[in-house]
Amino acid sequence: MPLVVPGLQSNSAGASDDWQSKLVGKKLGDAHDEVTFAKQDLPASHRVIRPDSMSTMDFRPERVNIHVDGEGTVRKVVKG
Q1: Where are the domains of the chain?
Q2: Which GO terms label this protein's molecular function in UniProt (predicted)?
Q3: Against a cut of 0.85, is the pTM above it?
């Protein structure tokens, strides 16, 4: 098995891809079901960005940015 050194040989986008596959197309709510993801299961460092909201441009590699549309459906997830 090959040695993987985080940050050097691994793809940091992988964590973002995991959250993207879990969240895109769902709404955020209080409990899980077919169309909703429970807010309490999001990582501690996250923010929800709505179309009409402002956000800072600071980069925090551990933070998950969740972009939702006007109806609250997750459209994109990125780290930073």
Answers
A1: 13-79
A2: serine-type endopeptidase inhibitor activity
A3: no
